[in-house]
Amino acid sequence: MTNPAQAGAAAGLSADYFARQDGKTGDLYAGSKAYRNEQDLTWRLEHMPAPPVSLLLGTSKNEDNYGPSLKFAQKAKPPVRVGKLVRDEGGHNFQTWREEYPVVLKWLDKELKEQATRNGGQ
Questions:
Q1: SS (H, E, C) 50-80
Q2: I need a surface site. Which of 37, 68, 98, 111 has the fewest CB within 10 A?
Q3: Whole-model pTM above 0.85?
Q4: Cα-flanking dihedrals φ and ψ of residue 52, to 5°?
């Protein structure tokens, strides 16, 4: 979302929409609320111009990020394009993600081809 010219499509599987801070990360934002806000993807959707990106949100109804993923998708406005991959069950683990990879790769292939077409084949 911060550099759509270089990364116009992305998939987040069990994604967080901000960087979590804890005792191991330290102060990632050097005390700057403005910088912290700019790194929060949901905040960006609410307060900054929408970037021309395509995003696939992968989640499961029993995951912690289910609610935040739905909120993020709801806040997205054009030119942001959001697809959702919502499973009844799953989790924040490699087995779930391995099962999602084929869907994600097909989605990325389609999105990148469409973006190339929209950009004149670049």
A1: CCCCEEEEEEECCCCCHHHHHHHHHHCCCCC
A2: 98
A3: yes
A4: -80, 80
